[in-house]
Amino acid sequence: MAKQALIVWGGWNGHQPEEVADICGSVLREEGFQVEISDTLDSFRDAERLASVDLIVPVWTMGTIENDQISTLLTAVKEGGTGIAGCHGGMGDSFRNEVEYHYMVGGQWVAHPGNDGVTYTVRIKDREHPLTQDIEDFIVVSEKYYMHIDPAIKVHAVTDFGDVEMPVVWTKMYGAGKVYYNSLGHNTNILRMPQTLEFMRRGMLWAAR
To answer: How large is the angle between the packed helices 17-30 and 194-207, nearest 10 degrees?
Structure first.
């Protein structure tokens, strides 16, 4: 039976959420998933549906979410073991008032000094891990995310802010569910970079139940 994925997009439109959702959906379909793409947070109200999917991909920068939407999402991951994976502000700068959501993700956006167009290097931390194996360090010209992070995350790739090593790709557990995050993906051009797209493919597959 094919694995099930739910992609929910919306929020601030500057991150091209519909296009990002379509790209992630195409990657998952190529991997044999049955994919539902939704443009409403009401999709999170269906607790039975969330419990049945193997992976949730949120693509929702900023915005607000109702209690009966966020609670079922958190429960599906923490108690049901549904995986969650996402990138950039679509997962790492969502629902700024929802502390438990940030805890699940493992981090929250703080700043991107210099805004878009900053040139920086993404460095692989654990080259033997299936998420990063055979991916070399690479240069990105985009937003460079400085984030609040949970010290319990497992860091797979980083960039430098002076003497500070800032995670770019990480994983963690939230109860029974696997969590994958990648801070790249400010627009579709960055998401379609071979390294970023491969990060996302591997990350979504890793997180899926």
So the answer is: 70
C-alpha 149/C-alpha 130 separation (Å) is 22
Taking only the tens place, the pLDDT of each residue in 83-101 is 999 999 999 999 999 999 9
Q: What is the identity of the amino acid at 51?
A: A
Q: Which tokens go with 114? A: 């210099």
Phi-psi region for residue 45, left (φ > 0), alpha (ψ -120 to 50) or beta?
alpha
Read off φ and ψ for residue 127, nearest 5 degrees. -70, -10
Phi, psi of 173 (to 5 degrees): -105, 145
Contact predicate 20/70, CB 8 Å: no
**Which structure tokens are listed for 81?**
């073991």
d(CA 10, CA 41): 8
- Looking at the whole model, is its pTM more than 0.90? yes
Task: Please state which of the four CATH numbers 3.30.9.10, 3.30.10.20, 3.40.50.150, 3.40.50.880 is assigned to the domain occupying 4-207.
Answer: 3.40.50.880
Residue type, 70: I
DSSP state of 209: -
pLDDT digits (tens, 9 = 90+) for 178-199: 999 999 999 999 999 999 999 9
In whole angstroms, give the CA distance from residue 60 to residue 87. 10
Say what the alpha-carbon torsion angle 188, 191, 192, 194 is, to the nearest 10 degrees: 160
Q: Map tokens 């700024």 to a residue.
A: 96
Q: Are strands 55-61 and 83-87 parallel, antiparallel or unpaired?
A: parallel
